[in-house]
Each structure stands twice: as C-alpha cells, then as structure tokens.
Amino acid sequence: MRLQNKSALVTGAGSGIGKAIALAFAAEGADVMCADRNGETAAATAAEINAATGGRGAATRADVGIPADCEAQVAATVDAFGRIDILVNNAGVAFHRLFLDTSLEDWERLLRVNLTGQFLTAQSAARRMVAQGSGRIVNMGSISGQRGGTGRAAYGTAKAGLMQLTRVMAVELAPLGVVVNAIAPGPVRTPITNHGPEQTKAYLDRIPAGDYGRAEHIASAAVFLASDDCRFVHGETLNVDGGFGAAGLVFSTTEMKSYKSGGKE
To answer: With 80 as the cut, is the pLDDT of residue 76 above it?
Structure first.
C-alpha cells in the first residue's frame, strides 16, 4: 500500500472526482478526511471508506468559498488523525459564461472558490506540513487553464492561476520537505457532467484516446502524486486528458486515407 500510515484531506470528496480520490487513497492505506460543502455526501463517502478494507474515513462540512472553512477542514483532519500528510485541493465550482456575458459576481465567485479557497487551504495545510518536515499537496487544475476555450473566461483564469500557484508553492516548499504538484483533467464523465451533443462531439473529435476520462483515471494520478513515487517531481502539472492537450488535427482512419491520397480513394 503506497499511502500506508498517511493522513489525507480531500476537498470536494462528496461526489465525482473527489470521491474517487478519497476511495483510492483509502484503498492504498491512508486515513482520509472527506470534506465537502454537502455534509451528507461527505459523510457517505467516509462511510463507504469505513465499510471497505484500508484506511479510516472521517467527514467534515466545508465550503472553500468561506475562508474560515478552509482552515477548519485542515484542523479537522489533524484533530481526527493527529497530522496531515496529504492535501488534495479538489473542491471547486464550474459554470461557463461567454466573456462578454460574465458578470462581476460570476467572476468573483469562481476566483474565490477555485483559486482563493485553494490558496487558503494549501497555506493552512502547508504550515503544518513544514512543521512536521514532510507533506504532499496536489492541486486540481484543468486543461481549461492551459488553452483558450469558449465560455472559460473566469473558470480558465482561475485554473491557470492555480497551476501557476502550484509552481510557486513547489519552489518555496520543496526545500522544506513538501512536494507540490497539480493535475489537469480533461473532460471527465461524472454525475454532474452536462455536456450537450455538440460539446461532446467537439471533445471526442479532439481526444486521441477516443473517449471522456473517468474519475478513477484522475484518482490514479492523485495516488501517484501523493506517494513517495513522485518524491523528485516538483511543480509539475500532470495532464490526464486522453491526449487532448497533445493533439493538433486528429483524423479518423478513413479521413487519413483520404488525406494521404489528396482526397481521392
């Protein structure tokens, strides 16, 4: 078990990617504090952990858009398990608005939850990790923070900021024993994925792997970044996107044959 005797805080652990990460950590032996603004779903994830073989689960209600909650969820982890070895900064909110339609309220909410909340939670966790001389922090970025996309003015900016924050944190915290990295998921099928037919086709046409990711794919990457296997990886953003970020033009086999023949079969 790669996370045996480690204690972790996973934010946004009530559903989707956060839940998958919490379950994967516990299966690797970690004790996991499941934090979510929905206290019932956080408790359900913790109960699922405790019903399985592996680490212990606990739950706390926390909204990372509220500064006091950012500190409280870290304190709850230490209270429950005696220390915090791993933080996965996963909690966030996603909605998309065209640049010209983005209100100041939209802008400030997305940055408050997806960037400021991550900053405050990481800062609180890092102070404890520095004091104990070790720790792992995994921030949840996005491919939307790496390239322009329709409707991503606020969301993409927040995720880009979080990935830059990851680099700065890594530079400052590596000498103090704390490893900081990020994950940038591509499109992932979760219970709240609500892409319409056109948006789904637009993604699938550009993903070499040919399908959306699953929450378990992101969880596997998080286990790696939280483990000793990544002890010499600092400040990186690991894309888990089926090749989306690497791709330019993507042709089907039939289209490629036509392309090679100049459009003539």
So the answer is: yes
Per-residue model confidence (pLDDT) at position 211: 85
The answer to the question of residue 249 being in a domain is no
Whether 265 has a pLDDT exceeding 50, the answer reads no
What was the pLDDT predicted at 58?
A: 98
pLDDT the model gives residue 206: 84
CA dihedral of 230, 140, 118, 112, whole degrees rounded to 10: 160
Specify whether the CB–CB gap between 56 and 22 falls below 8 A: no
Cα(223)–Cα(227) distance, integer angstroms: 6
Which uninterrupted H or E stretch holds 81?
Answer: helix 67-81
Tell which wins on pLDDT, 65 or 194. 65
pLDDT for residue 197: 83
Give which of 198, 185, 160, 189 is closest to 242, Cα–Cα.
185
Task: For residue 155, indicate whether it is catalytic.
Answer: yes
Q: Report the distance separating Cα 47 and Cα 104, nearest Å.
A: 39
pLDDT for 117: 98
Query: Against a cut of 0.85, is the pTM above it?
Result: yes
Could you tell me the CATH number of the domain that includes residue 15?
A: 3.40.50.720
Asked if residue 185 is part of any domain, the answer here is yes
49 in Cβ contact with 23 (< 8 Å): yes
Give the Å distances, CA to CA, from 111 to 104, 105, 132, 186, 210: 11, 10, 30, 20, 32
Contact 220, 124 (CB under 8 A): no
The answer to the question of residue 80 being in a domain is: yes
**What does the block give as tokens for 221?**
């990457």
Query: Which position among 155, 203, 212, 259 bears the catalytic label?
Result: 155
Sign of CA dihedral 93, 95, 99, 104: negative
